[in-house]
Design goal:
InterPro entries: Aa-tRNA-synt_II, aa-tRNA-synth_II, aa-tRNA-synth_II/BPL/LPL, Asn-tRNA-ligase, Asp/Asn-tRNA-synth_IIb, NA-bd_OB-fold, NA-bd_OB_tRNA. This protein is an alpha+beta fold. The chain is built from 15 helices and 17 strands. It has two domains: 103 residues, Beta Barrel (OB fold (Dihydrolipoamide Acetyltransferase, E2P)); 306 residues, BirA Bifunctional Protein, domain 2 (2-Layer Sandwich), CATH 3.30.930. An eight-stranded mixed beta sheet has the order 7-11-12-17-16-15-14-13, sandwiched between helices. Bound molecules: 4-amino-1,4-dioxobutan-2-aminium adenosine-5'-monophosphate and magnesium ion.
Length: 480
């Protein structure tokens, strides 16, 4: 017999059919009611065992965590809370789960802290919260591809191992084949990377942007969606050492078109989830509501999760220049009362997440796109404005998250780019190919990077980035 998923059965209107369903026992009550979940949906299906006619030894093996295959008849449910259930005719135990062992894990059906769930990340996907988050994450990935594919973009796979530092921030993980302490040295006593696997110093990519730019200048509209790595020692709820980034890059787009693209893209993927992940969002909305009850009133959100998503989809993002933002911040209450950790007193200051969050959560109360940042605090590749001191950069800031997107119009003028690189001591030999793009048919082009986990955070209402990726990589932590 064909196996049906729990999702299919719960949606089925064909009552009295014989069915087979396989999954994991979430709970077994009164020697009679199995709550079976197979991951296809947040909901479990109730399977009712005829315990009087079932072998005692078999009943003893129907334990929380066990994998089972159930044959039975789909019937209208007698009890509350579900429309259909399975009247069991046969239970086969596919894989046992010892109750004493289960009691030591998060499979035990009761409330566990998110921290405990992180320590058992291999099991947490069997909880409602994590299965919901991971289904939403999957739907978002699909929506990302769908958006770009429907809009004429090509998917490019930029290299994971690179010889360049795209962001120039020096936060790279080295890739080497040398054995620790046995790296050959050159005459100056420095490690001789010419003898290493690639014949040069290499690292894991921090961004696929530079390579994506070269592809945009041939395919027109491209996007990447892949893992990126940053060795920044930020132990926060917003940073991972390994995260997934989406980077569109478009030839002939200026910064305004780039801002339009980011806004349209984000709205599309959120709408996709609203349309396709209703059950999971409702569950996550409720979870958030419970979590917020433990917080003081002032810290609670005014909107529910789904209201927040709708709000973003339905309203324009506010576009504000860096200079305007600095004026707002300089004169705001927390700055005057010295409540910020980093006080804003002059133009040119780098914005910290406390400032970004003030702007979106307190001042504008909606997503904000900040643009035209001081050149000094942004990467070398951004296009210099006529004023000579700002660049065509943009950051999209989100409530509860801070920076969701970072992007820019790229410097397409060879001479200006060379000057910028020289000023920052970036050797031309390292990026000769990047400079070449400015020699052969250079043109205005723009792009951005969106941190996928930050998008999943916002969409699911979770509060720690470690809880929206299966196996988080953070400082001092690479278990699993
Ligand atoms: O602002 P970033 O550093 O921009 C770039 O890498 C550009 N090269 C992108 C481009 O223009 N193609 O990073 C982009 C986004 C951030 O806005 C943030 O959402 C996310 O990547 N991000 C991180 N997410 C999780 N953990 C980290 N450590 C992150 N660092 C950046
Ligand atoms: Mg950034």
């Amino acid at each position: 017999m064909k196996t049906s998923s729990v999702k299919e059965l719960l949606a089925s209107e064909k009552l009295l059919q014989e069915v087979n369903v396989k999954g994991w026992v979430r709970a077994f009550r009164s020697n009679r009611f199995i709550q079976l979940n197979d991951g296809s949906t947040i909901n479990s299906i109730q399977c009712v065992v005829d315990f009087e006619n079932t072998d005692e030894a078999l009943l003893k093996r129907i334990n929380t965590g066990a994998a089972v295959s159930i044959n039975g008849t789909l019937v209208e449910s007698q009890g509350k809370g579900q429309s259909v259930e399975v009247q069991v005719t046969n239970v086969e135990i596919l894989g046992d789960a010892d109750p004493d062992e289960v009691a030591k894990t998060i499979l035990q059906p009761k409330r566990h802290s998110l921290e405990l769930l992180r320590q058992q990340a291999h099991l947490r996907v069997r909880t409602n919260t994590f299965s919901a988050v991971m289904r939403v994450r999957s739907a978002l990935s699909f929506a990302v591809h769908q958006y770009f594919q429907q809009n004429g973009f090509y998917y490019v796979n930029t290299p994971i191992i690179t010889g360049s530092d795209a962001e120039g921030a020096g936060e790279m993980f080295r890739v080497t084949n040398f054995e620790t302490n046995k790296a050959p040295l050159n005459e100056e006593g420095e490690v001789d990377y010419s003898q290493d696997f690639f014949g040069k110093q290499t690292n894991l990519t921090v961004s696929g942007q530079l390579e994506a730019e070269t592809y945009a200048m041939g395919l027109g509209k491209v996007y990447t969606f892949g893992p990126t790595f940053r060795a920044e020692n930020s132990n926060t709820t917003r940073h991972l050492a390994e995260f997934w980034m989406i980077e569109p890059e478009v030839a002939f787009n200026d910064l305004d078109a780039n801002m339009d693209l980011s806004e349209d893209f984000i709205k599309y993927v959120l709408q996709y989830v609203l349309d396709n992940c209703k059950d999971d969002l409702e569950f996550l909305e409720n979870r958030l509501l419970q979590e917020e009850k433990t917080k003081p009133q002032a810290e609670r959100s005014e909107m529910s999760l789904i209201e927040k998503l709708r709000f973003v989809v339905d309203n324009n993002f506010k576009r504000v220049s860096y200079t305007e933002a600095i004026d707002i911040l300089r004169n705001c209450k927390p700055n005057k009362k010295k409540k910020f950790q980093y006080l804003i007193d002059e133009w040119g200051a780098d914005l910290q997440s406390e400032h970004e969050r003030y702007l979106v959560e307190k001042h504008f109360k909606c997503p904000v796109i900040l643009f035209d940042y001081p050149a000094k605090i942004k990467a070398f590749y951004m296009r210099l404005n006529e004023d000579g001191k700002t660049v065509r950069a943009m950051d999209v800031l989100f409530p509860g998250i801070g920076e969701m997107v970072g992007g820019s119009q790229r410097e397409e003028r060879l001479d200006v780019l060379k000057e910028k690189m020289a000023a920052l001591d970036i050797p031309e030999e390292e990026l000769w190919w990047y400079l070449d793009i400015r020699k052969f048919g250079t043109a205005v082009h723009s792009g951005f990077g969106l941190g996928f986990e930050r998008l999943v955070l916002f969409t699911t209402g979770m509060s720690n980035i470690r809880d929206v990726i299966p196996y988080p990589r953070t400082p001092q932590n690479a278990e699993f």
